[in-house]
């Protein structure tokens, strides 16, 4: 099954807090449904990453992720939202945990109802690798969710800047300079970038500074769509930076 479609983000749409629209309309209006669908598209990858830690394989993870969003978009559970939570990310993480708990309970009931007899393997017949101890250094599912959320936001912000530079006829310039946004600039100096672009190094330095500032603006606009109060944007930006570390 395919994830919800993710059209190229429109920076002008970010001024509206989509999560607020969902809360105010209680999910009943066409506007609220569209806003919720857009938010779900943004969070498909983080939810899938969280569920993958719990699912038996990739196919099961995809099916569970699709089922979760189908229920959410079908209004099951959205009417129980606590507006004081404020952040769509907080609501969604709690919702997916509840969903997985329900799925485990359902599977347990099905096994009992089908009359399955759970037998313990004798040591001499057990061909498994034995008890797998969790890696204490591995990130928690919550950390996996937050990191994937952060990376998805960065990807969407880069997509916005790509479209902006394309419309301005500056795609070649952006391709050279975007490494200063992604942290991949260790292999190229600003002087080398200036040479590639046929510009002086001072101009390139100013352009990179402006590009970074615009990148931060777009990220904040992306975050603003997922909170109830835009005053929470800086807090979410801090969480994003923490997740990337």
Write a compact overview of the structure shown.
The chain has 245 residues and is an all-alpha fold. It has 2 domains: 15-116, Rna Polymerase Sigma Factor, Chain: A, CATH 1.10.1740; 142-244, no CATH class. The protein has helices at residues 18-25, 30-52, 58-73, 88-113, 141-167, 171-177, 179-182, 190-197, 201-224, 233-244.
Characterize the biggest β-sheet.
none
Total number of beta strands:
0
Strand content: under 5%
Shape: elongated
Uncertain residue ranges: 4-16, 116-133
For the record, give the distance between the C-alpha atoms at the N and C termini, rounded to a whole number.
32 Å
Domain count: 2
Rounded to an integer in angstroms, the radius of gyration calculated over CA atoms is: 22 Å
Helix count equals: 10
Instruction: Spell the H/E element sequence.
Output: HHHHHHHHHH
Backbone structural class: mainly alpha
Fraction in helix: 55-70%
Mean pLDDT: 80
Structure explained in plain terms:
- The chain is mainly alpha-helical and 245 residues long.
- It folds into two domains: 15-116, Orthogonal Bundle (Rna Polymerase Sigma Factor, Chain: A); 142-244, no CATH class.
- The chain has helices at 18-25, 30-52, 58-73, 88-113, 141-167, 171-177, 179-182, 190-197, 201-224, 233-244.
- Helix 1 (18-25) crosses helix 2 (30-52).
- The two termini are 32 Å apart.
């Amino acid at each position: 099954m395919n994830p919800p479609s993710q059209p190229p983000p429109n920076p002008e749409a970010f001024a509206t807090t989509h999560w607020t629209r969902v809360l105010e309309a209680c999910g009943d209006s066409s506007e609220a449904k569209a806003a919720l669908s857009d938010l779900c598209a943004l969070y498909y990858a983080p939810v899938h990453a969280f569920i993958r830690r719990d699912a038996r394989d990739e196919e099961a993870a995809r099916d569970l992720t699709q089922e979760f969003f189908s229920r959410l978009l079908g209004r099951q559970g959205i009417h129980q939202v606590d507006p004081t939570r404020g952040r769509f990310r907080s609501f969604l993480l709690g919702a997916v945990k509840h969903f997985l708990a329900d799925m485990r309970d359902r599977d347990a009931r099905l096994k009992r109802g089908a009359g399955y007899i759970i037998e313990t393997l004798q040591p001499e017949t057990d061909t498994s690798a034995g008890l797998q101890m969790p890696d204490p250094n591995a990130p928690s599912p919550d950390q996996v969710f937050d990191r994937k959320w952060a990376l998805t936001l960065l990807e969407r912000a880069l997509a916005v800047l790509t479209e902006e530079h394309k419309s301005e006829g500056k795609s070649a310039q952006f391709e050279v300079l975007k490494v200063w946004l992604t942290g991949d600039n260790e292999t190229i100096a600003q002087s080398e970038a200036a040479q590639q672009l046929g510009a002086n190094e001072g101009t390139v330095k100013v352009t990179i500074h402006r590009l970074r500032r615009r990148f931060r603006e777009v990220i904040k606009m992306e975050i603003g769509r997922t909170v109830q109060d835009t005053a929470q944007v800086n807090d979410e930006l801090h969480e994003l930076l923490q997740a990337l570390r």
